[in-house]
Amino acid sequence: MKIAVVAANGKVSQLVIEEALKRGHEVVAFSRSQNRSKAENFVQKDILAMTKEDLTGFDAVVDGFGASTPETLPLHTRTSQHLADLLSGSKTRLIIVGGAGSLYMTAEHDVQLWQTPDFPEVFRPIAEAQADELAELRKRHDVNWTFISPAADFQADAPATGSYLLGGEEFFLNDQGESVISYADYARALVDILESDDHIQERISLVRK
């Protein structure tokens, strides 16, 4: 497959690139700063400056964008919508590295994790921003998007276990009663998902097995 990874210098993006290259895929990395990934094919460009031509011919586009300051949080929605506009009407998949905060806590889907009293206050703004991003993606029926939420405890430096559990819209725990996954296992799962034809226009979630 030919895969574009946008915001390629992020930790998750770099691991996705490594995993995809290990499997023999062709990867082109896009970032507004100099390349820090292992991708040999690199384009230095801001997401919002990218054009339809930049993404022509790809089987999948992975959006690893992340922001945390109040003035940049709306860029979660703005950047993913820009990518969706560029891919509109094409067969190219758009895979979004999402957050856990938008996972539902009830079968009725009326409460999200970020809205619960015990959710850490420091993470509430970014969780709400990514929940808004997902809400806007749900309106898109012209793009083959997939939004992948990690577990609540998303561990940057934890080792890969090589296994994971796949869930849907609702928050869930593994057999040890944990909602945890490493960046490395998330990256592996993401590449598994983009290699498949499954979960088009769906939000899915992951925890460590």
Automatic annotation (TrEMBL):
Matches recorded under CDD domains: BVR-B_like_SDR_a
GO molecular function, one term: oxidoreductase activity, acting on the CH-NH group of donors, NAD or NADP as acceptor
SUPFAM superfamilies from the UniProt entry: NAD(P)-binding Rossmann-fold domains (SSF51735)
Tree of life domain: Bacteria
Pfam family, one: NAD_binding_10
InterPro entries for the chain: NAD(P)-bd_dom, NAD(P)-bd_dom_sf, Polyketide_Oxido-like
All residue ranges annotated as the NAD(P)-binding domain in the record: 8-196
Protein name: NAD(P)-binding domain-containing protein
Organism of origin: Streptococcus sobrinus W1703
